Amino acid sequence: MFAAFEAGDIDGVVATVSDDTLWIYHGTQVIPPNEFRNKERVRKFFTSILWGTDVLKFEREQYIEQDNVVVVLGNEHQRVKKSGKELKQKWVQIYTVENELITHMEEFATSEVVKP
Predict the structure, then answer these.
(1) pTM of the prediction?
(2) Residue 98 CA to chain centroid, in angstroms?
(3) What angle is formed at CA 95 by the lines to CA 12 and CA 58, rounded to 5 degrees?
(4) What is the pLDDT of the chain when averaged over all its residues?
(5) How far apart are CA 99 and CA 103, in angstroms?
(6) pLDDT value at position 36?
(7) E-state strands within 1-116
(8) Under CATH, to which class is 2-114 assigned?
(9) Domain-by-domain residue ranges, the chain?
């Protein structure tokens, strides 16, 4: 999923999620919370990211795996195309995987506006 995201391959990302997947984004100081239920809503989520921002840096710092749960710690730096505003985020993403597909994702993040 991460390799597809970094390549801008939305179909590749969507291929990694179950039909009834649920993604919960708790929001940050800058970005509001949201939920994405099912494959097509996840597609819209990634489309809005890739069309609306330039991802300047996207790093996964650590993976923690237990049974069918994967916790990923990371950070990113992005520029909003419309405003030119740059954001840096640190995040924790928790994935539940069943039958090799992501059935649930929950993200907790913090963000700051960076002056270009």
Answers:
(1) 0.91
(2) 19
(3) 60
(4) 94
(5) 9
(6) 95
(7) 17-25, 34-37, 53-66, 69-80, 86-98, 101-114
(8) alpha beta
(9) 2-114
